[in-house]
Amino acid sequence: MITRLARVRNYRALQGWSCGADFGDFAQVNVVYGVNGSGKSTLCSLLQDASADSTWSSGLKLEISEAGTTRSVESAGDSFWQRLKVFNRAYVEANLRFDDPEPDANHLLILGEQRVQIEEERERLQAELARIAPALQELQGQKKIAEQDRSTLLTDTARTISDELGRLGGRYNPRSYLAPLVEKRLTEGFTDPGAVDVGAELATVNAHPPEALTELPHTVFSLVSLVDSVREVLAERVTATVIEDLRDHPDWSRWVQEGLALHGDRETCIYCTGPITDERRDALARHFDDSLRNLQGRVSALESELIGVRDRCHGIVVALPAPEAIFHDLRAEFVAARDELRAQVSQFEEGIERLVRALTEKRDAPFSALDPPALKTAPLQVTFGPVASVLARHNQIFAEFEQRRQQAAEWIELARIVGIRDRAAGLAATTERLDREMSELATEKQACDEDLAGLGAGALDPTPIAKALNEDLSSLLGRSDLVFEVEDDGYRITRAGEPADHLSEGERNAIALLYFLHSLSSYETDLAGCVVLIDDPVSSLDANTLFGASSHLWSRLVHEHRCGQLFLFTHNFELFRHWSGLLQRGQGNNVYGLYDMQWVVERDHSGQAVRAPRLIPWPPGDAGKRLRSEYHYLFWRVADTLSQCQADPSPERDIEAATVLPNLCRRLLEAFLGFKAPAQLGHLRQQVDTAAGGAVDEVTLTRVYQFLNHHSHFEEADTTKPVARPEAVEMLHVVLEFMKAVDGEHFSAMCEAVGVDGAFVRDVARDVDPVASVGPFRGTT
User: N or C: at which end does the chain have fewer Cβ atoms within 10 angstroms?
Assistant: First the structure.
């Protein structure tokens, strides 16, 4: 059995928690009383959840006694947890479940964790099937859309390609070039053509075959050697006997030289009819000797050669074809090369003209050396290479035009397919993904169908307990209107022969408690070796049912069938008082322990005041007088705490009074007022006024009324939130003094009954303005 809770590091409100160093060992039967929110259910859940805490995040250390020896439990895999049986709200939710029936159907009750789990599994599987069906339909719709989109994409692409290339016929025939061909190209793969100028390639496909052009006979014209020859000629001087008049007048010399051929056999001049003497003929012969004629011949030859170069170069440029005759792909390059050539030829011809003029001048001045002309801006060479290259490639295209047109068609086709490749691949991937998801859902559906078929009725509960339930429920409730009958899928429950529409929370808790007690003896459970925890077993039960449940617990776990150890947690004071009486009278012959679970104020590691639950052993002897009723207990808690706050004041006691006791104090005052002014029940102000009967001053009445309305609702408190309410102690004092002023005899009798000294109650200061006392009273303690 459990001897003590040595440590809890981290579990909800239990942070660094333990029973305390001075806390004794737990007994065989342990009854714990605590108001709602005091930590009872948290402690119960800690023990219930421990076996599922695989990482042991709570840090629980439990000390237990087995076969006379003591050991610690500090892991989820400890065998001790198999012997721990817990009844709490979680057990009720796990073991009690109602179907949601059709309007005319019988109500079915599912009992037992195994059956509840199977029903929950059935619902889960049905919910999964309900989820899978529309999900499959949705995926099928998405797949259909993806397939249609891809089919439309391939069809439109095939139509575009056949529209653009259909005039070529063959594989691009519009009747045969369809979506499957595009699919085939995508599937088989291809070499990406890169960036394709579709417009230009379409022009190639649609163009008429170009005509062959005459290629250039020369590709380079050079003046380098001619320039050198001209320079040599210009630098020469004729050494003949010179007739000065002819030398000084080149035009005369030219005229005379041309006339010599006309006067070879004449004695007189044709022009002047004067005689031509032998001396004159001899002088002219010496002037126009062979050296002069030789130089003039060389000049003429150079002139002819230069003019020939010019004319041939010019003729080639003039004979160049028009741009329209050039293949469109080469047209721009041709025009650029042609224009550049024309510019070069123009400068080239200008250089030739300069050389020719220099030679003409030399012919007329053979006896003087002349400087060559300036040729810095004129090229000495002209190349027709770029233009010739274009023409050669044009002719090559002409020779390979059909092959080029097929290549252009191939590039256009591939460019169109590349344009849709990513989208087509994405749609194909979407279809594949949807197929996988549909396959997975189909597999899930098959598994759900199989699992659902395997949940047979016989597997739900092999041990019908309808008869036992009816007997126990009748005994516990004191009535037999609720009846259970075994059905294939659960228990049909009726109330007075009619389908039970709604069971109350108390009835459900009673049924779950009976099933829990029955399960302890039905499933091969060694009750004598079990540690049983019962948390609030009489929640929502009326007074009669409460004692019926208490009787069942006592007889099943203490009196007739003794479990190894019992922990009974309750917020119902009457149940606590009833059990303490049974145990104190020794009816069960059990060693027992009674505990009060309270919130206490402590300092955490940072020095901040925080609240924590604490198990406080119930004092033995006369202190047990407080058990006479809940009213006695509340009076004792308020009076005792106020006495301690005055005897040993501290911030911790002030905060404890501010955060824990006001709720108890409110319940105490409401109970007191209920007896003193029962006719005004539900109207606090009227109750206070009626009970006071003029014996209590207005300031005190205002404080009491304000306390009841604003400063006493602390059942569900944040245990980590620090609270500073220095007026709380004074407010408790005000409430007790109010009770004393209203009924001093009753007050004194209560002090005597619970064993406290009422002398600590003093008069409250009367100098507080009742109008200004809107907030809590802030008098000193």
Answer: C
